[in-house]
What we know:
This protein is mainly alpha-helical. The chain has helices at residues 2-12, 20-28, 33-59, 67-92, 100-134, 141-182. The chain has one domain.
Amino acid sequence: MELDNLKSVWKDISTPQKNSEELSLLLKKNSHPILASAKKQIIVECLGFTAFLFCYFAMFDGETKPLATNLIIIAATLLQLFYGYKGFLLQSRFKSSTNLNDDLKSFTIQLKSYRFQVVLARLLFAVGLITFFTYHISFSEFKWWLLISIFAIFSVQLWLLYRLWTKRINKLEATLAEFKALIPHN
């Protein structure tokens, strides 16, 4: 009996509704809160990776490492910058046409692809960073445990990055569902 009561209460909870003009305006202006937070994240990350790229050689003894190791860290960092810029363009260039429903579906598919690419790029950056910093190190038991801890931290960061993009995509899909609910069906 409690389950029926719970179902009844659940059905009676109203969700905030936006009309189609509000939804369209949010997406046309690129002012949707999900897009704004993603843009902030991408800009901060790009600034951080750019600063790292300019500082790593002198601050982290890049001059003592072989050319291949330096190229790995440079390529991994440039890959992060590329995907940061790609994400910024992806989100800032979204424009809705006359069929906002299809445009939002397409944009969600693009974000899912971008989510995979950005997580893969971050994984490659982690590998490049570990390769750079572990080059020519004699590993003691403590250093092995430290390396395992670093792998664990990078794994958690990758999972959090994936989860962050998944939440954003889910919120956009919820907006799409809300928008579809407002459109009269033929």
